[in-house]
């Protein structure tokens, strides 16, 4: 695989997502959030890794707020550390960090095993492997876990390549939820 194919694909997906986010993002977010909520309930997930959304990602903030109010649900988000991240319990206040990503404060509390990880994507290749922003943080995080939670990729509009662009270490979804 040539790197320029993957980076060209990433750029074209980001361009499509930026356009989509301007036109009908609110409506698409609502549809996807309902699907995610149904998926979480159907699978009885209790320990859920979500993310604090960037502009072109599905805005899961309303879902985070809703899940936090449910007694047996624990919501975790990434906290960047080195070349990857660790999971921390979602709590306020959030602070803007590297790459413009908001995070809660660091926590030394050891998180439970997550049942379900909802991961934003820029695109997927022909075999359903994640194309992200190119930093590899999610790939390294899941590679270092000693267990495998259910992985759900989410995106406003599915941006899928008909070619295999991924490397062996790129993570693959169990499910993809889009509008």
Automatic annotation (TrEMBL):
Record flagged with keyword Metal-binding: yes
Catalytic activity from the UniProt record: (6S)-5-formyl-5,6,7,8-tetrahydrofolate + ATP = (6R)-5,10-methenyltetrahydrofolate + ADP + phosphate
Cofactor: Mg(2+)
GO-annotated molecular function: 5-formyltetrahydrofolate cyclo-ligase activity; ATP binding; metal ion binding
SUPFAM superfamilies registered for this protein in UniProt: NagB/RpiA/CoA transferase-like
Family that this chain belongs to: Belongs to the 5-formyltetrahydrofolate cyclo-ligase family.
Protein name, UniProt field: 5-formyltetrahydrofolate cyclo-ligase
Source organism of the structure: Poseidonibacter parvus
């Amino acid at each position: 695989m040539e790197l320029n194919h993957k980076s060209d694909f990433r750029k074209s997906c980001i361009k499509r997502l930026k356009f989509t986010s301007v036109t009908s993002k609110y409506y698409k977010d609502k549809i996807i959030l309902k699907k995610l909520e149904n998926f979480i309930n159907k699978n009885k997930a209790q320990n859920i890794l979500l993310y604090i959304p960037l502009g072109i990602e599905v805005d899961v903030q309303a879902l985070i707020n809703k899940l936090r109010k449910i007694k047996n649900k624990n919501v975790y988000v990434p906290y960047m550390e080195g070349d990857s991240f660790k999971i921390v319990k979602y709590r306020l206040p959030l602070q803007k960090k590297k790459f413009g990503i908001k995070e809660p404060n660091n926590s030394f509390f050891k998180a439970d095993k997550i049942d379900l990880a909802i991961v934003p994507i820029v695109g997927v290749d022909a075999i359903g492997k994640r194309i992200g922003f190119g930093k590899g943080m999610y790939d390294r995080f899941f590679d270092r876990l000693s267990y495998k939670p259910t992985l759900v990729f989410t995106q406003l509009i599915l941006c899928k390549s008909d070619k295999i662009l991924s490397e062996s270490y790129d993570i693959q979804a169990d499910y993809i939820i889009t509008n």
